[in-house]
Specification:
The model has no long low-confidence stretch (mean pLDDT about 85). The longest helix is centred in the middle third of the chain and has 34 residues. The protein has six helices and 17 strands.
Length: about 350
């Protein structure tokens, strides 16, 4: 009986093993693809990776870096917003620079006021005082001369009537009064002549230098408000209020590197594609007037014809796509730029990767 039970259990185990082996050996049916892969539309075509970017004559996008350093106090635009040339985008704390500019302005205004004072000389009030001083000196001289004449007549009639000491004192007083009148008249002439031309020229240069210093400080103050360099669309704002930025740009906590504070593109009625042609296929490119290309949107079956714009005649490492800046990159590519009109029924954005087929020779 015991042997029979063992035999039955063994048979069931063997059967279970065979069933399990059969079930696990079956391959699952392949899932249908979500979309058809991009097919080469040309009998001879060159495949390349492409990057959508804003349509502009030079460069890829408009990268905006601050020219000054400081914490951000306000962000005045939103991503995707259309802006006009000169519109404020971001404000950086300018309290220190604003105080410095106001101080230099006050110094320049003080120098300008001093210059106006020099040019306005002689002042009527000062001239009136000088005239009064001349009249007073003349009166003093006449009084001294009259006193001397009286004493001299008395001395001539009777030498004993006036002491020689008194006569000498009167003569000295007359000479002192005459000298005083001469000094006062020269002081009057100096007052009447106004400011010295060299004093005016020196003050003019001082005022000019201070105004230029203020203009420089005010120009630097204006840079604390970053403005749109041209009409366009804000593609990315890479920082937030309170973050510190500098001429290196904004720090990205994900990449742990610095990048532009803002990225702008031109108005997006048209976009362009930068297709990277492998250097070993460059010789297959036809003449520019014969180049044709189509762009395929990844994840869809949509594709668009492209218009050739230009070739960027510089073969460079493929770091645009690999972001491999700190390592050797063997693959080198030639950028070829195409243009297309943005369709209404497709959502396409600068920075989006696409597949591009370019006709070969």
């Amino acid at each position: 009986m015991r042997n029979k039970v063992i035999f039955v259990v063994s048979a069931l185990g063997m059967l279970l093993a065979l069933v399990s082996a059969y079930l696990f050996s079956r391959q699952p049916a392949a899932q249908p693809p979500l979309f058809e892969p991009a097919a080469n539309p040309y009998s001879r075509g060159i495949y390349s990776n492409g990057m959508i970017e804003s349509d502009q004559a030079q460069g890829e996008n408009i990268n905006i870096y601050p020219e000054v350093s400081g914490p951000i106090t306000r962000i005045l635009v939103a991503e995707g917003q259309s802006v006009h040339k000169g519109d404020p985008l971001v404000a950086i704390d300018d309290s220190v620079q604003r105080a410095a500019a106001e101080q230099q302005r006050a110094q320049a205004e003080a120098a300008a006021a001093t210059l106006r004072e020099l040019r306005a000389q002689p002042r009527r009030e000062n001239l009136a005082v000088a005239v009064a001083q001349v009249d007073n000196a003349r009166a003093s001289l006449k009084s001294s001369q009259d006193q001397l004449a009286k004493l001299q007549r008395a001395y001539d009639m009777d030498e004993k009537s006036i002491s020689e000491d008194a006569l000498d004192n009167a003569k000295n007083a007359a000479r002192v009064a005459a000298t005083g009148l001469e000094v006062i008249e020269k002081q009057y002439a100096l007052t009447k002549a106004g400011a010295w031309v060299y004093d005016i020229q020196s003050e003019e240069r001082t005022a000019t230098a201070l105004w230029k210093a203020y203009s420089s400080s005010a120009a630097l103050l204006a840079k604390y408000t970053i403005r749109a360099p041209t009409d366009g669309v804000v593609l990315a704002v890479q920082s937030s209020v309170g973050s510190y930025v500098s001429s290196q740009g904004a720090y990205d906590s994900y990449t742990q590197g610095f990048g532009p504070l803002l990225v702008m593109g031109l108005p997006q009625q048209h976009l362009q594609v930068r297709a990277y042609i492998d250097e070993i296929l460059v010789h297959e490119l036809p003449e520019p007037r014969h180049i044709r290309a189509e762009m395929f949107i990844r994840g869809t079956t949509d594709h668009l014809p492209l218009t050739f714009v230009r070739v960027q005649p510089y073969i460079s490492p493929k770091i645009e796509l690999a972001d491999a800046r700190q390592e050797r990159v063997d693959l080198r590519v030639l950028p070829v730029i195409f243009r297309f009109q943005k369709p209404q029924n497709l959502s396409l954005y600068p920075g989006q990767m696409v597949d591009v087929y370019v006709s070969a020779k």
